[in-house]
Amino acid sequence: MTVDKNYERKRKLVNSFGKAIVFISALLLIIITVSLFLFVTSKGLSTFIKDGISIKEFLFSTTWNPDREVPAVGSLQFIIGSILVSAFAIMISAPLGVSSAIFMVEIEKKLGQKILQPAIEIFVGIPSVVYGWVGLTVLVPFISKHFGGLGFSLLAGILVLTIMTLPTITSVSTDAIRSLPVEIREASYALGATRWQTIRHVVIPAAKSGILTAIILGLARAFGEALAVQMVIGNRPVIPKSFLEPMSTITSIITMDMANTAMGSVWNDALWSLALLLLIISFTFIIIIKLVGRRGMYK
Amino acid sequence: MKKIEVRELDLFYGEVQALKKINLDVEANSVLALIGPSGCGKSTFIRTLNRMNDLIEGVKINGTVLLDGQDLYKEVDVIELRKKVGMVFQKPNPFPMTVYDNVAYGPRIHGIKDKKKLNEIVEKSLKAAALWDEVKDRLHKSALSLSGGQQQRLCIARTLAVEPEVILMDEPTSALDPISTMKIEELIEELKNKYTIIIVTHNMQQAGRVSDYTAFFLNGELIESGPTDQVFYNPKDKRTEDYITGRFG
SMART domains from the xrefs (chain B) (predicted)? Predict the structure, then answer.
């Protein structure tokens, strides 16, 4: 075989060019991530280092007076607010989402694959402002009229987040369940198991790590959602005493206040500390997802 | 005694006819080997015997299959049927759970909860599948950590645990190494005292070694069946002879 020298040279050139592009992109990605983390960390820590506010006060006090002479930036109510609104939303959306995933993969396969799954994937892509606006226009007046209060409430936040996390949980669990080998289902049926027994004792346990990942992803989405939540919860910096009271979350206080504060003020620094807290929480979620994924038997 | 009688069995996948007018009897406590080239309908046929084809959409079946004289498709409940007719698949398919839970799965779904009873069944089934000595110290480890051959014997143990009368094996050794294959063949030899076994195989020597009867399938038709010695050494049909002597397939 004769070797075309030109062709060989070109091939090598393209090869090293490709390598360089991939390498630069990867490097850039790492630099951006690291610098983002460093920036948020340095900003977030200045509340404690520069302004002399104790971490204890920040995490465990509920006094939020950042614009006073002696500013107080107790943020417990935001942390609890975020936890309440996300946890309750997930408590509703997780069972619904996992059940719909099972319905689509194990029970109504055709309907699931042709209609339901594409529909759910569209829902995943709807911008959060749309959810928020619908919540504001439909949900808030509805709650006010039928349950009392202003309507801007923990309950409104929970319902909006339930609807927003449902497609995420459904679609990730669907993939997890669908990726299970058909052979283990056959094995179960061949032993005389009913469909329900197969789902309950084989499919769900085998897809457990995928389903957990789906739920944690949903939780992360709920925790990090700012706009839609902020539009319906009323934004009062207190711990709500009932489902019908207004409240705030970590994300909502940041979006509400960031435009009002001067760079370098205690107020501004405190918002950065909240952002740092969010970052740490989302890292924790990612680590949990990785750990859960590693534990799974099928991947 | 006839365990299974198949009469004029047709099977369609949508428009495609996969089985054509099959007539076949299976003697109790014997091993029947189904041979034939890929796509000839052996696996489809074996799956009509425990109604696994029910799970596939668009399958239509005509004719009758009798188990102990009862029509599988009319008189027998599918759950009861699969309890009586167990199946071992081509690829070892243990559940992603412990060795113990794999074997206990069948008895549990059929309502046995008593711990002591389950322990007994698990031990008995694993012993019957010649796996007990290898796994008795790791009953509570994941079944997926076993070797391929061990996994397949675990699948056999899992099938035995529901005390079937018939065991269907769909190329049970095609994914295994020669030593694991030998162990499974020895096992089949032992199991036939208690069970009726129908095995699909691509391996002529295997059919010759383990079976009492052989049935040769070609293009969805049953070409010839009878005692293995007769089918192998004195085939009536030219096509059987060609296949066995390796002229095609």
Answer: AAA
Residue-wise pLDDT tens digits, A85-144:
999 999 999 999 999 999 999 998 888 888 988 888 888 889 999 999 999 999 999 999
B-contacting residues in A 161-220 (Cβ below 8 Å) = 181, 183-184, 186-194, 197, 201-202, 205-206
| Chain A residues lying within 8 Å of B109, measured CB to CB | 188, 191-194, 197, 201
Q: Do A190 and B79 touch (CB under 8 A)?
A: no
**Interface predicted TM-score of the whole assembly (ipTM), two decimals:** 0.91
Whose CA is closest to B6, among B23, B19, B18? Answer: B23
Q: Work out whether the CA dihedral A187, A193, A195, A197 comes out positive or negative.
A: negative
pTM of the model: 0.84
Task: Catalogue all structural domains in chain B, each as residue range(s) with its CATH number.
Answer: 1-243 (3.40.50.300)
Residue B18 to residue B33: CA distance in whole angstroms: 19
Residue B30 dihedral angles phi and psi, to the nearest 5°: -135, 170
pLDDT confidence band for B50 (50 / 70 / 90): very high
- Alpha-helix residue ranges (DSSP H) falling in B166-235: 178-191, 204-210, 228-233
- Report the alpha-carbon distance of residue B133 to residue B110 in Å, rounded: 27
Task: List the single residue in A with minimal CA-CA distance to B83.
Answer: A192
CB contact under 8 A, A192 and B155: no
Query: Exposed (0-12), middle (13-18) or buried (19+): which is A37, by Cβ within 10 Å?
Result: middle
